[in-house]
Amino acid sequence: MSTETIVSTQPKPNGAREPSQQGQPLALLSPSGLVTILVPCCGQLEFTKLLVPSVLHHSRQPFELIFLDIGSLDGTAEYLAGLAAGASVRVEVVRADTDLGISDAIDNALKLARGEYLVLLNNDTIVTEGWLSQLVSLAKLSPGIGLVGPMSNQAAPPQLLEEVPYRIRGQGTGGKSLEAVDEFARNWREDHKGKWGEVERLGGFCLLIKREVLKRIGHLKDEPWDLGIFDTDLLSTKARMAGFTLAVCRDVYVHHFATRTFAQGAPA
């Protein structure tokens, strides 16, 4: 069992790259409003290749990407290394050889995260226009809002949209299918603009967490769950016990293939 950070890059103004300086205080490294997007991968490269362009195209700045690669043998490691080499944002990859190393890998990934906000995002999702700015805006609406999630075609109520007017598959998905997702998300946003609600629990397929929540409840390191922070039932409960409100952003839609990002099934 081993865990290692295999990619550590940080963009510089002139386009050159150098390893991120993990010893620096967070405040010196993090611009205001920075979002760390944490993406777990257990293979399923075809889905990661759909997610990454949507994140790069539809996410407002500033944001950084941290990938949690758990034992992928399908070219995921090579793809992520190439992404880090050419991306205009900071990209980190933390790898564990098997799922036995998930707990340590999550801990390492959280130590690398510099954002004011952390977003857990499954690699079997497709994000849409304005998704990140809307989630952050709702989180900023009140200091008491600690966790925020979107609506989706594959989620537990009340985040579930049971009927969507498109059908896509993962591997071999064409541009027209993805355009249909974006079109639906735009129409949904216009029809439900500004709507949100308090909930008891949020799914982990796409979940924004304020750093203040993690500071108050800790990184769940002492809990007997291998998936730690990705156990969103536990996370939701602890956040509410700490006095935070959980909110669903009803005018944000994220597509979810629901193919179980973790090999043994992460909570969604």
Note down, in words, how this protein is organized.
There is one protein chain. The chain has a single domain (3-256), classed as Spore Coat Polysaccharide Biosynthesis Protein SpsA, Chain A. Helices cover 31% and strands 25% of the residues. Residues 1-28 and 263-268 have low confidence and may be disordered. Helix 2 (45-58) links the parallel strand 3 (35-41) and strand 4 (63-70). The longest helix is centred in the C-terminal third of the chain and has 17 residues, at 175-191. The protein is globular. The two termini are 26 Å apart. It is of the alpha/beta class and 268 residues long. Strands 1, 2, 3, 4, 5, 6, 7, 8, 9, 10 and 11 form an eleven-stranded mixed β-sheet that branches.
Mean pLDDT score: 83
Q: CATH topology, anyone?
A: Spore Coat Polysaccharide Biosynthesis Protein SpsA, Chain A
The CATH homologous superfamily is named Spore Coat Polysaccharide Biosynthesis Protein SpsA, Chain A
Shape: globular
- Output the radius of gyration: 17 Å
Indicate the CATH class.
Answer: Alpha Beta
SSE order and pairing:
Layout: E1 3-11, E2 17-18, H1 26-29, E3 35-41, H2 45-58, E4 63-70, H3 76-86, E5 91-96, H4 102-112, E6 117-121, E7 125-126, H5 131-139, E8 145-152, H6 175-191, E9 196-199, E10 206-210, H7 211-217, H8 232-241, E11 245-256
Parallel strand pairs: 3-4, 3-6, 4-5, 8-11
Antiparallel strand pairs: 1-2, 1-5, 6-10, 7-11, 8-10, 9-11
